[in-house]
Amino acid sequence: MSRRGRLSESGPRARLSTHPTPPVTGPVRTCVGCRGRDQRSALLRLVLDSAMHDADVAEPRRIVVDVRACLPGRGAWVHPEPQCLELAERRRAVPRALRTDGPLDLGEVQAHLGR
User: Fold this and answer.
1) Cα–Cα dist 89/73, whole Å
2) Which of 12, 40, 49, 71 is a Cys-bridge partner for 62, taking CB atoms 3.0 to 4.6 Å apart?
3) How far is it, in rounded angstroms, from Cα 68 to Cα 51?
4) To 10 degrees, the CA torsion angle through 39, 8, 4, 1?
5) Integer Cα distance of 81 and 69 in angstroms
């Protein structure tokens, strides 16, 4: 039995619904805020701004929303909800997912989500 089949059909998080759910098709990503798995199309991709690649700059590096999910570099995925972004900030999950250190500016992401 494959691991994927075992986890989705049994255990404490198994669905008890009598209606079968359609299988998820397409790429699945994990939200860095709530750690929930969802389809790639339902999440926002966050990347470091490539224009600010200077390591000597003391100001925080800017994070941008990759709406088309095609910008180069590592990405962090988050649900398009302010609660998930707030949780990711509190857990310091965005810098960890992007494998960078130092302060990050999430102002553009917050503006995109309407915060």
Assistant:
1) 20
2) 49
3) 18
4) -160
5) 17
b vs e for 39-77, b when ≥16 Cβ sit within 10 Å of the residue's Cβ? eeeebbbbbbeeeeeeeeeeeebbbbbbeebebeeebbb
pLDDT tens-place string over residues 29-73: 999 999 999 999 999 999 998 775 555 556 788 999 999 999 999
Give the residue among 71, 65, 20, 13 at the shortest CA–CA distance from 37: 13
SS3 of the chain: helix, strand, coil, percent, to 5: 30, 20, 50
Strand order in the sheet with 44-48: 76-78, 44-48, 61-66, 104-105
Which class for 89: exposed (0-12), middle (13-18), buried (19 or more C-beta within 10 A)? middle
